[in-house]
Specification:
This protein has 252 residues and is α/β, with parallel strands linked by helices. The protein has a single domain, classed as 3-Layer(aba) Sandwich (Rossmann fold). Helices cover 44% and strands 22% of the residues. Strands 1, 2, 3, 4, 5, 6, 7 and 8 form an 8-stranded mixed sheet that branches. β1, α3 and β2 form a beta-alpha-beta unit. The longest helix is centred in the C-terminal third of the chain and has 19 residues. It starts with a helix and ends in a 6-residue tail after the last strand. Bound molecules: S-adenosylmethionine. The site of S-adenosylmethionine has 21 residues, from α3 and β2.
């Protein structure tokens, strides 16, 4: 069954997104990624944890010709398949991408607010490295924290625990998985702006959303994003976009 609080969030965002900053964020991140290699667009791209498919459609709109999206959630994939029939959406676990796709298949791999849900990020990065072409680009857009600060426990709209990325640990894991970090752009102030706007929109239009969704869904979205905003404003968590290039040297 479709996650109704995530659907409410995408309505609130005016697009099929469950990541901070919606289309604005995807545009900023894709522009930066393509500045590393504009020829990426002619090859296959994979959005891991694609949710309702809005980000994959943004990849297509940006000129990527072969766009794939995978997600664990069958209801989200069914929604994406119906809404965006030109793209390729499949129910799959990011940890098994190497069983699903040929080695060195993708020139571009993105994860928008997905890594925070993953505990074994080192393993996932290795799996993504295997299906990436040599010199392929990886983009991770997510919550971050400093190594020294203990991460307070928050849950997402699916009631799953959230694990912000420790920047230092992530950089080491990327290196081990043969990803060369190209850039890390801090986006904390953008996250704060986006979440303030989101909460303002929710409070001014809550009567409209309560006609389509339950009061519990509205309250859950408000509570989750109020907590996230508070963590960001206090500097406990941050937001960042991390860009890396694949270092594998086998022939594609
Ligand atoms: C916050 S949502 C973000 C969805 C989408 N990236 C977006 O920006 O709209 C996180 C998504 O990651 C998916 N996910 C979490 N772990 C995954 C895994 N191991 N493999 C594939 N998808 C995963 C969840 O099912 C969920 O749809």
């Amino acid at each position: 069954m479709i996650n109704s609080s995530r659907l409410l969030l995408s309505r609130l965002r005016g697009g099929d997104y469950a990541h901070a900053g919606d289309r604005e964020a995807t545009h900023i991140v894709l522009k930066q990624a393509l500045s590393f290699d504009s020829s990426l667009k002619n090859k296959a791209a994979l959005d891991v944890g694609c949710g309702f498919g809005g980000t994959a459609q943004d990849l297509y709109d940006a000129g990527f010709t072969h766009v794939h999206g995978i997600d664990l959630d069958p209801a989200a994939i069914l929604y994406a398949q119906n809404k965006y029939p030109a793209l390729n959406f499949t129910v799959a676990d990011g940890f098994y991408v190497d069983k699903k796709y040929p080695l060195s298949h993708f020139s571009f791999v993105s994860l928008f607010n997905v890594m925070y849900a993953i505990q074994d990020t080192a393993m996932l990065l290795k799996k993504l490295s295997a299906i990436s072409q040599p010199k392929g680009i990886l983009v991770i857009f997510d919550y971050t924290c400093e190594k020294s600060s203990p991460a307070p426990f928050l849950t997402d709209l699916a009631d799953k625990p959230m694990y912000p990325l420790h920047r230092e640990i992530l950089q080491e894991e990327l290196k081990q998985a043969r990803w060369d970090v190209l850039d890390i752009i801090d986006m904390t102030s953008d996250y704060i702006r986006w979440y303030r706007e989101l909460l303002k929109k929710l409070s001014t239009s809550s009567f409209l959303f309560e006609q389509e969704f339950s009061a519990q869904d509205v309250s859950k979205v408000r509570k989750t994003f109020t907590m996230l905003l508070s963590h960001l404003e206090q500097g406990i968590w941050g937001g960042a976009a991390i860009y890396a290039r694949n270092q594998n040297d086998w022939e594609s």
